[in-house]
TrEMBL record:
The keyword Signal applies. The keyword Signal applies. This is Lipoprotein. Residues 1-26 form the signal peptide. Keywords: Signal. It comes from the Bacteria.
């Protein structure tokens, strides 16, 4: 029996190691230039996310951040994070205690990288969960241009004011709209909402979901001490659509969605 166990144990260990090993995940994210992110914003988002996820920042350079993580003193990984204003990557540099071999590694490493990626996106005010839902393609596009319905922004805004959902304490300006007064921007903000579109026209469904998005932005602005959201663009699947009069609504048979991105600001 002891000989049997002696022969079987290495096979079991090898089998378990194989079950927990996965191809190394090197995260890569890209963003459109008209999202107007800066390299400094990207650097700050990466460093903040690393700190929040308990990685040690080893060095910070204008286009490269190096970091490491050690878990329970037994598992260690080091990564390079090249970045620019429009992209970042998380690349494995070295590791120990993670069974790295032939392009594979313990699944925990991939989990750490995925969580780090999600945190970086959140620091850029991009919700990875909402993005995942959008990328499922559950909204069937029904617009005349084959991609989205374009709706009058001021009309939807006025409906929100008339309904009482918006209280007028926060003003909203699409990118390209003139603004009277001195504007001081605070930070970027994004809101992405869906609504039931069944038995509704595109106009009705889009109006409802726009009001929900604006109410969300209004609440965020108040919490930040802002009285305006400026430079607003439609933002769906990281595609920024800029129009000084209209917003983009994705209206399907059952669901309609609107996503807006802008900057919190104070106007005096």
């Amino acid at each position: 029996m002891s000989l049997y166990r002696t022969l079987l144990l290495p096979l079991l260990v090898a089998a378990l190691a194989g079950c927990t090993s996965h191809r190394v995940y090197n995260a890569e994210e890209r963003f459109p230039e008209n999202l107007n992110l800066t390299q400094q914003q990207m650097q700050r988002a990466i460093v903040t996310a690393l700190t929040d996820r308990q990685w040690k920042v080893q060095s910070v350079e204008p286009a490269l951040i190096k970091a490491a993580i050690t878990v329970r003193g037994r598992h260690h990984a080091e990564v390079d994070i090249p970045y620019s204003a429009t992209a970042f990557q998380i690349q494995l540099r070295s590791s120990w205690g993670l069974n790295e071999k032939s392009g594979k590694i313990h699944r925990n490493y991939n989990r750490w990288v995925n969580r780090l990626r999600d945190n970086i996106l959140r620091e850029l005010d991009i919700d990875p969960i909402t993005e995942s839902v959008d990328n499922l393609g559950i909204i069937e596009q029904t617009s005349g241009n084959g991609d989205a319905v374009l709706m009058d922004f001021q009309q939807g805004l006025q409906r929100g004011l008339d309904s009482g959902l918006l209280d007028g304490s926060v003003r909203f300006f699409l990118a390209g709209q003139p603004i009277d007064g001195e504007v001081r921007t605070l930070r970027s903000v994004t809101s992405n909402r869906k609504t039931n579109a069944s038995n509704k026209s595109d106009e009705e469904a889009c109006s409802w979901v726009l009001q929900s998005v604006l109410a969300s932005l209004q609440n965020t602005a108040k919490q930040a001490g802002a009285n305006a959201v400026v430079n607003i663009v439609s933002y769906y699947k990281r595609n920024a659509y800029q129009d000084p009069a209209r917003y983009e609504c994705h209206a399907g048979m059952a669901i309609a969605g609107v996503a807006l991105r802008g900057q919190l600001a104070t106007i005096e």
